[in-house]
Design goal:
single chain, alpha/beta, nine-stranded mixed sheet, 5 helices, 22% helix, globular
């Protein structure tokens, strides 16, 4: 599989926010979101070729792992890597963009699927595989990146039309400007989590953190 970068940091998003985590970022993405903050990983040819064994050696004794991208499910070895990490005693967050079939992900309580639903501001909302919503469980998380009220209304309506049994997270585009989104969620009494991107609060918009 093609790996763009690997590093030890704090989880910046979702249910594991703030936890010490080893990050594995794969190369290549099938989407082109307008506000993508990891555009450097979109090219399928960048990074270096690594085996599942190589990746396991990088992770070492760190308990929490985040497999991200790009889009990690573009890597044919992704299911094998996820199983190997769990077999090694790791808890894994798989960051996936919502357009790929997540039924290929091994079934395990120690694999947290963090799946996006892209809103209109991304330009990719028509690429979502809605059947994935039925696979998510309460160990997983469904993330909406919100740019404006149009995105917020889109997310609200989608959740009404497709009730889910999982944790729902709203995050602002850029991961930092929470006030407007928080006020809208409170005023509408939405049963979601509003979360920032912690790593950007600490280190700014840099790679490798």
């Amino acid at each position: 599989m093609r790996i763009v970068e690997n590093f030890l940091s704090l989880q910046g998003e979702g249910l594991k926010i703030g936890r010490l985590t080893y990050f594995i970022r794969s190369a290549g993405c099938n989407l082109r979101c307008s506000w993508c903050d990891t555009g450097f990983s979109q090219d399928y040819s960048i990074g270096k070729e690594m085996s599942v064994k190589d990746v396991l050696a990088l992770v070492g004794d760190v308990e929490n792992v985040c497999f991200t991208g790009g889009e990690p499910l573009e890597q044919s070895e992704a299911p094998e890597l996820l199983k190997a990490l769990v077999d090694a005693g790791k808890t894994v967050v798989l960051e996936t963009n919502g357009s790929k079939d997540i039924s290929v992900v091994p079934v395990s309580e120690n694999i947290i699927i963090s799946m996006d639903i892209k809103c209109p501001s991304s330009g990719m909302q028509d690429r979502m595989l809605m059947s994935n919503l039925d696979i998510l469980s309460m160990k997983d998380q469904l993330k909406f990146v919100i740019s404006d009220r149009t995105d917020l209304e889109y997310a609200e309506n989608l959740l009404k039309e497709h009730p889910v049994k999982t944790n729902v997270i709203f995050s602002p585009v850029g991961g930092l400007s929470l006030e407007l989104l928080a006020e809208e969620v409170v005023s509408k009494k939405l049963d979601v989590r509003v979360l920032p991107q912690l790593h950007k609060i600490i280190w700014g918009n840099k790679q490798g953190v």
